[in-house]
Amino acid sequence: MTQTPTDAAWTELQTRFQELADLGGTLALLGWDQSTYLPAGAAGGRARQQALLARLRHERATDAAYGRRLDELAGRDDLSPVQARTLAVARKEFGEATRFPARFVAEFSQHVGESYAAWTGARPANDFARMVPYLEKTLDLSLQAASYFPEFADPLDYFIDQSDEGMTAAQVGEIFSALRAALVPVVEAVTAAEPPRTDFLHRRYPGQEQLKFGEAVIRDYGYDFTRGRQDLTHHPFMTRLGGHDLRITTRVKENDLTEALYSTLHESGHAMYEQGVAEELLGTPLGGGVSAGVHESQSRLWENLVGRSRAFWAAYFGKLRDTFPEQLADVTEGEMYRAVNTVARSLIRTDADELTYNLHVITRFELERELLGGRLAVRDLADAWHAAYEQNLGLRAENDVNGVLQDVHWYFGNIGGAFQGYTLGNVLSAQFYAAAERANPGLEADLARADFGRLHGWLRENVYAPGRLYTPNELVERATGEPLTVEPYLKYLREKYGALFS
Amino acid sequence: MTQTPTDAAWTELQTRFQELADLGGTLALLGWDQSTYLPAGAAGGRARQQALLARLRHERATDAAYGRRLDELAGRDDLSPVQARTLAVARKEFGEATRFPARFVAEFSQHVGESYAAWTGARPANDFARMVPYLEKTLDLSLQAASYFPEFADPLDYFIDQSDEGMTAAQVGEIFSALRAALVPVVEAVTAAEPPRTDFLHRRYPGQEQLKFGEAVIRDYGYDFTRGRQDLTHHPFMTRLGGHDLRITTRVKENDLTEALYSTLHESGHAMYEQGVAEELLGTPLGGGVSAGVHESQSRLWENLVGRSRAFWAAYFGKLRDTFPEQLADVTEGEMYRAVNTVARSLIRTDADELTYNLHVITRFELERELLGGRLAVRDLADAWHAAYEQNLGLRAENDVNGVLQDVHWYFGNIGGAFQGYTLGNVLSAQFYAAAERANPGLEADLARADFGRLHGWLRENVYAPGRLYTPNELVERATGEPLTVEPYLKYLREKYGALFS
Description:
Chains A, B: This is Metal-dependent carboxypeptidase. The structure is a homodimer of 502-residue chains. Chain A is mainly α and 502 residues long.
């Protein structure tokens, strides 16, 4: 997998790659600091620094000489497979950065600013009508954006390709239809059963102890604290400040035992993915996670398939009770397991559980597909939203605040491509986990001993180390022996929730 | 003091200034993070990011078009005084960044690397002889460096001018001679007296409480936590991440009550200086502290003239005892005041007290002056060091480790200009403070009430707000009504230590 620099042209390219990566890491530091430790009065100056660095990076990423060098080298016939793929990814990124006319970028950017500002007023006023002209223009500009990439027949394919390279609306749509068909009855059954006891999750759990517990778990998982750290922010995230600097953040609620823990497990999955990319790919276009879906598969795998499993609680319930002996005195391991797997239908995506979250995503994906396909008019979107929620979740919001106005994405210029990765991640998490289990018989017993060596090792070798060396579809097939499929995820959900609530 | 952009050329220049400032702030963030929160494994990647940003900043700071624009504008006759001074400072910095041939910079830089590496081995081996050829070459290169600035008759004037613009070896030498003559008998008398009780400084003081106490004091001083913050590092420092982002760091020893407190007070002085620079100067070459000496005057003023005064302890001893009631149960306010003003002759600069520190600095300054003047050969430096310590401090190190090998500066390429600012700072701290007292009768009584409003206000108006609008010598004369003079400092020392130890 080593890249052999064959000559000076290739070496010069590596230098450019490394510069782009280092400017990206510096931008990430400016953003990390903004979210963690920036003094309130410094916000304006920080925004100016971020704009400057983003501009410097953009200038380098769109430099015509760089583009010519990429084209020249791509035409050669002595490239190694790694070199060929490196050039393919670099040229894809170069195209994304250069194909829009400057005038178009300026117009879109100004429109997004205006749309966002309007949304911050229209949302609390429950005034979707006010947003219709903005959304219509966003839709129009989005279709124009896609038109600069005529290699994609369906505009949605272009948007999906930006975050989940090579995946298509048809492929995702098929997966999502099958998933919805299977999910609706499972949710039906689970929510009809007696809800588990959750009172003890909301006792008082001091923040420092919660943080220490979560950090001890991810140290067991294999998150490398010599190449990362955890800090507190308003919204949890993972960020890449460098090839050896993958930081995560969390937030703590002293009256909610699950908030910090599951955000820590989630972000650690993103970070372990990036920490596991092969050393020789770092500083090149291949040196990072391959797609939104595969990235999310790792956060969901470590958060849900591991962190909400019976085996996990067999390993950790005793430790958690040692940390909080009074608060958990009257709680059993089984009660803890059931409590962290509570399922409830809700109107708000960001509050949803592991199971119903997918229905929120699928709803949005299908509405985007209709919008971009010209089969749904923006003025009918609020009603279509309510109808879809009724169909998919059996709920109808009493207003648009908890309906079509709830997420910022569409009002921030992102129609298409922003949501599907979450559910692709869930689907892939199970597909990868099942493959890891096939290769490592008795894996669940490892987890019950808090021994994550075989699981982490398999993921590192098959998912993390390759970085962007393969397309997402290729990676899935190489790692699991079959193309992207929803079956392992459905099997996982049926077995887990069947046993939980039958 | 407002800069009036007279035309497009001036506006373009402002944009360049702001970019240089923002790249500087980004570099400062990379460095701050390196010292505070960087994961150990990320050190290599961080060094590469720093080198890249430093190069990008250097390219902009030395851009020929920028230099031409500065020259053009400097030739105009319609400049406001602020514009004229802005151009003077910008051209000075441009000259410093461009006048050395690239070959010379590379040679000096390589030599510094080799010299530093040799010193890390020679120092523990007590082997000054090994360093002689390195130092000889450093001296030679330093003289060459100065020769690129023929406007300075004395090479030392060039080095002093880099950190203390407009000050000269003659001016500093005169101040230092007078200071030494006065200091030696004071130190003599003070160290002959019974040393104060200091046992209680070394009881156990939990770190968190120490930090909180220090932060409460500097909040009273007027350090603005909405435009700064304090974190922990190995060596305390102040850093400018932006015009509204002046951060300080400290370190805590649980068995030393003075370590964190006085480092916090010291760094807060540096930071309040920068926080006080007039808003309209930020993002221009005038938007920062004017010199090493004036900067140090503010750290020393808030650390020593305020923080080690009787009035300070009248205000804070009760609060400190409320924080640490058990540890300070048997201690009086007077004992605390005397303990933090202990004087002891020592061989090591970095361990020295307020009073004797100056003698360490003067010794180095005088040896540098002899070296650069060709009156002292490098091979005789170790002996000259011992003789100077005997004369100035009445002590002789038993080896060169605690002698000429103790400080990194000379072995890192800095002969001349690196030390004098510390003692200039002490001298200036008293001159500024005396002027503030004249303008604000009864100032000491304010301090004894922890009311720093008049002192901080006077300093902000007379020292901080102007930034680099005047040269250091001009600033001193405008603020205090007289040129740089050692008299107020000598008066302060005589009164304080006369009363303390008579």
